[in-house]
Amino acid sequence: MYMGYGYGYGYGxxxxxxxxxxxxxxxxxxxxxxxxxxxxxxSKVPASMGSTGAQVARRMMDSEGASAVGITSVAGHLTDYYxxxxxxxxxxxxxxxxxxxxxxxxxxxxxxHAVQTATGYFPIRVRTALVPVVxxxxxxxxxxxLLGIFLNMAGLFQLAIVLFSFSVIFQxxxxxxxxxASHRAVEYLKSTGTLVDERGARQVLTAAALTYVAAALxxxxxxxxxxxxxxxx
Length: 233
Fold this sequence. Notes:
Blueprint: H1 15-42, H2 53-63, E1 70-74, E2 81-83, E3 88-92, H3 93-97, H4 101-119, H5 122-150, H6 154-192, H7 198-232
Parallel strand pairs: 1-3
Antiparallel strand pairs: 2-3
């Protein structure tokens, strides 16, 4: 199997591959700009009841079956996440102690992940099961791809595509997990009257979700590209 270098160009000069790089950069910059803009806007609008992000997230988890989850701080800006390994929300200081619409929206989104885990939400169980496989695949696929190209071995090239496919599957499974966590957050905030403006929470969380959509789209394009190269050669 010949991998295409005899056609007068390598991957670096392949217009389709360059297009994917450009799309990736544009989507990445656009989504990051949008989430920063949305967060900045709604971080200036206070949520009602004077509660901090951590306090509202605590109440949400206590009321929805995740009372055993702890809350701690993490350095950085918009670095918030839920880690099932230590069963804690890791909230940036601005969202842990802040009381803005943006702060409580982000904190409750992460609380939504904790509730998903506590209640056995199926997509998050699938994503958790995929983590070790995806970690291994991400470490190996590019190396195997290059070996397949330089050694002119079709089997290695196809194995690299299979390994990369696990990353694509992981990102696709991540989409409903993120969307559901945001839905849980907004519904909780609505039901408790925590928000002054529901639109603000939705805008912040939609902006965050678009980063996952963009990443999934780019990965799908990369997979299609690799499959087309495999079929062509």
